[in-house]
Design a protein that fits this description.
The protein is α+β, with helices and mostly antiparallel strands. It contains two helices and nine strands, in the order βαββββαββββ. The strands form two sheets. Strands 5, 6, 7, 8 and 9 form a five-stranded mixed sheet that branches. Strands 1-4-3-2 form a four-stranded mixed sheet.
């Protein structure tokens, strides 16, 4: 059994580039502009575009859309360096780095507005 997360995205090729170039995911398979599968550390992320079956309207008329607050968490060794790199690349941030009992975190957005938490575990 494997762990898979699905994100609805506006543009599949753009999402592939973001996850590969910025977060170190590897492309597993692409299905044109409909969907792609990327993976990192044993987690598979399905990037479902507007032409994917996952983007079809629900029986009550609601349409799946990117965004929200549920998110994947990507652990980083140095959150300050990651933030500097992401800001320099023009990545959208939802907040500033927060420090808590377990470590430090900040929320960024992929090109479709889906949140990703960058997390650096507390040392020691």
């Amino acid at each position: 059994m494997s762990l898979t997360v699905r994100y609805i995205v506006r543009d599949v090729p753009e999402a592939i580039a973001f996850y590969a170039d910025r977060l170190g995911f590897a492309l597993v398979e692409a299905f044109g502009d409909a969907m792609a599968i990327v993976a990192r550390d044993g987690v598979r992320l399905w990037l479902a575009g507007p032409n994917a079956s996952a983007a079809r309207p629900m029986p009550d008329g609601r349409v799946p859309a990117p965004g929200g607050w549920n998110r994947i968490v990507v652990e980083v060794a140095d959150i300050d360096a990651a933030v500097t790199d992401m800001r320099h690349a023009g990545i959208t941030f939802r907040n500033e780095v927060l420090n808590g009992p377990g470590g430090s975190q900040v929320l960024i957005e992929d090109p479709s507005g889906n949140p990703i938490e960058l997390f650096q575990p507390r040392r020691g």
